[in-house]
Amino acid sequence: MDWLNQLKKQMSCLLFSCIFFVTAVGASVCASATEVTPPKQEAGESAEQMANLQLQSESAVLMEASTGRIIYEKNMTEEKSPASITKIMTMLLIFEELEKGTLKPEDEVITSAHAKSMGGSQVFLEEGEVQTVDTMLKCIAVASGNDASVAMAEKIAGSEEAFVERMNQKAKELGMENTHFLDCCGLSDDDGHYTSARDVALMSRELIVKYPQVFDYTGIWMEDIEHVTAKGTSTFTLSSTNKLLKQYEYTTGLKTGSTSKAKYCFSATAEKDGISMIAVVMAAPDYKVRFAEAKQLLEYGFDISALYTDNELGKVDDLEVVGGVEQQVSVGLNEKFSYLDTKGRDMSAVERKIVLPQSVKAPVAEGEQAGVAVYYIGEEELGRNNIVFFSSVEKAEYKDYLKKVWHKMLL
Fold this sequence. Notes:
This protein is of the alpha+beta class. The chain has helices at residues 2-32, 87-100, 113-116, 133-141, 146-157, 160-173, 197-210, 215-218, 244-247, 287-304, 398-410, and strands at residues 59-64, 70-74, 108-110, 130-132, 222-229, 232-239, 251-259, 263-272, 275-284, 306-310, 314-322, 328-333, 337-341, 351-355, 359-361, 369-377, 380-389. It has 2 domains: 2-32 and 310-410, Peptidoglycan synthesis regulatory factor (PBP3), Domain 2, CATH 2.60.410; 59-304, Beta-lactamase. It has 11 helices and 17 strands. A 6-stranded mixed beta sheet has the order 14-16-17-12-11-15. The protein has a 5-stranded antiparallel beta sheet with strand order 2-1-9-8-7, with helices on both faces. A hairpin with a 5-residue loop joins strand 11 (314-322) and strand 12 (328-333). Helix 1 packs across helix 11 (398-410) and helix 2 (87-100) packs parallel to helix 5 (146-157).
């Protein structure tokens, strides 16, 4: 039995040493881990520093889509009647339902009496007429159909009122601070139905970045649909309200709007050389100025912009885990990094530096920040991208240390 007592003593000593070591090193890691300072916020250009474009539109915004950076603005938070660019939010909520699977392109939509009663721009749906979600989206995106917008709102939320509640909730989530909707199509001239150029850019960005398939609809110039009703079958031609599709080769969308109160509004999207721009003009004096100034903004943006994008996602390194059930954990990048330059600098000179601690103390959770990737041109920091843990590692308990000790003794 002496050998057994001796074995127990050796195990006890080994266990004590192991626990003491883990505790000491863990404390050391907490004290000496790499300190990560908050990322610097890039100072945006003031209105005085921006180009003097002499726009007639009462408010405007030019935004680069991937970064969300505003390149130009004029009265961008001023509340304006949006007219049919309201439908950008309607389309956004439709695409969200398609993504969730609660709605499918081939699903049938029945036109109600309320939907049929809409005036303004319409595709002349009859009460009881059935169209697919896909066709209704074309009616909204191409011909700006108020009747189709209301029919889709009722399909998704049961009523237009309930759908509008969702629109306003989404506006809050997107940080649209100067927006309130009263309908889903923009027909209302009520003072309670308003938005701003900045807010239109925000919802436009959300739509085109998350659901680029919207361009399959907004890029249509003309297309026929079939009306099948009790009166028989007839063909109706959808004609795009976005004349920039024929006037500017880089145009991809998005939505026009006009009423006597709103005057002429437009959220225009275009892509050139891998850069995507959103130009919003509100309260333009006429439709020709609306399109001309949107094009002017887009051309200005493309002329002064260069985009750096780091698409290198995945594992960056393995970190030592102190006091965990696993000894290592993989860390890396889950999201791409983009930086828009408007100073004429060479984006090929951008360097990426990885900042990570030598080790981490358990527990760690998958998705939590482990470090940062910092991007520089020379000594100037452009921005940061979080490096995250790719898996979770639980804190080791005494039984886990016993297992490790026993395993070592058996080797």
